[in-house]
Write a structure and sequence with these properties.
- By secondary structure, this protein is an alpha+beta fold.
- It is about 40% helix and about 20% strand.
- The protein is built from six helices and eleven strands.
- The strands form two sheets. A six-stranded mixed sheet has the order 6-9-10-8-7-11, covered by helices on one side.
- α1 (about 1-10) crosses α3 (about 80-95), α2 packs antiparallel against α3 (about 80-95) and α4 (about 155-170) packs antiparallel against α5.
- The protein is elongated, with a radius of gyration of 35 Å.
Length: about 325
């Protein structure tokens, strides 16, 4: 009921906390019947309450064609009250805003909304996007269009890549699936800050894959040497900025303090997993073939040994037969 009251209040006043970004909300979210809208409101109340404690939540409400799937996320450094407030305002904007800045999916029963300087996002749909863990629709924001000089671009890109890889390692090893980091870029005398987060309900391996996909696509989405960008998705987000600490956390992972040998120790990289799996499979097959060969050789040697014993027995019998014919003191008897 609290959320319904907030929505009524927001309908009569303009949003003052921030502006919606990355949405193609053309005239508001259209919900053709009261049952679906009621399910959506009920689900949002549950998810907002959960996100107040854990910064993110996902779930469903209703049945049949009126079933609603939803996922919400507040940035990991936000407190409970501001998280709930921003989520409620984001839902109000999604349903009622006339904003036409387009990027994210928006249709009769679907909305994905990235809100208020990337601190809040909501996603609701009548289609099941929860079981697939698809990060679409994604949004890339050029938060800082300045670039480092061409002479240090390669070094800068390499450093940012290492920074966000180390950040991903930290995220997938934490229960809240949120981490921030920094690194000193000596060539320009600047600090690069980064933040990564997954929805807490997400399995660790899914979170790793989600962030890895953002990292893989990063350089194709922005200019080389660009000093800042945000990569937003339904399930996971990543942002980095040069000389701007855009989060409030002070407990940061410092790349300059990480031992190089351990920097990628906890990478959940698909290629590595496939490589290790392939190696173990080849090793298992090799051991199996060797075991079969050893057993075959052993049986072959045993057969040869038995044949040799039989051959020797026959030779002895033949020799004895010959001796019996030449030696009168030696007799052979036909027992039959």
């Amino acid at each position: 009921m609290l959320l319904l009251c907030l929505l009524v209040i927001f309908l009569s006043s303009a949003s003052s906390a921030g502006q919606a970004i990355c949405s193609n909300n053309n005239g508001g979210m259209y919900m053709p019947n009261n049952i679906y809208k009621s399910n959506l409101i009920s689900l949002s109340e549950l998810l907002f309450a959960s996100a107040t404690e854990e910064h993110s939540a996902s779930g469903t409400a209703g049945t049949g064609s009126d079933k609603v799937y939803g996922a919400v996320l507040c940035r990991g450094d936000s407190d409970g009250s501001s998280c709930h407030k921003r989520l409620a305002m984001a839902l109000n904007e999604a349903i009622n805003s006339k904003d036409s800045g387009s990027y994210s999916l928006q249709s009769s029963k679907n909305v994905t909304y990235y809100y208020d300087q990337y601190q809040t996002q909501i996603s609701f749909s009548d289609k099941d996007f929860l079981s697939s863990f698809s990060n679409e629709p994604r949004c890339t924001i050029d938060t800082n269009l300045n670039s480092v000089t061409a002479t240090v671009t390669e070094r800068f890109e390499d450093l940012v890549t290492k920074l966000i890889h180390a950040l991903t390692d930290a995220v997938v090893s934490r229960a809240d699936k949120y981490a921030v980091s920094k690194v000193w870029f000596e060539e320009t005398g600047q600090t690069v800050y980064a933040l990564a987060q997954c929805i807490q309900d997400m399995p660790y391996e899914r979170c790793a894959v989600c962030l890895d996909n953002i990292i893989s696509d990063r350089q194709s989405k922005i200019s080389a040497g660009q000093m800042g960008a945000a990569f937003l998705g339904v399930w996971c987000t990543l942002r980095y900025e040069t000389d701007t600490q855009f989060f409030t956390d002070t407990k940061m992972i410092s790349l300059n303090e990480l031992p190089t040998s351990k920097m990628h120790f906890f990478r959940w990289n698909n290629a590595v997993l496939v490589g290790v799996g392939g190696f173990l499979l080849v090793l298992f097959i090799s051991c199996l073939v060797f075991h079969i060969w050893i057993n075959t050789q052993r049986r072959r040697e045993q057969a040869v040994f038995k044949l040799r014993r039989l051959y020797l027995s026959i030779q002895i019998a033949i020799d004895l037969w010959r001796m019996g014919g030449a030696n009168p003191e030696f007799s052979l008897y036909d027992f039959s």
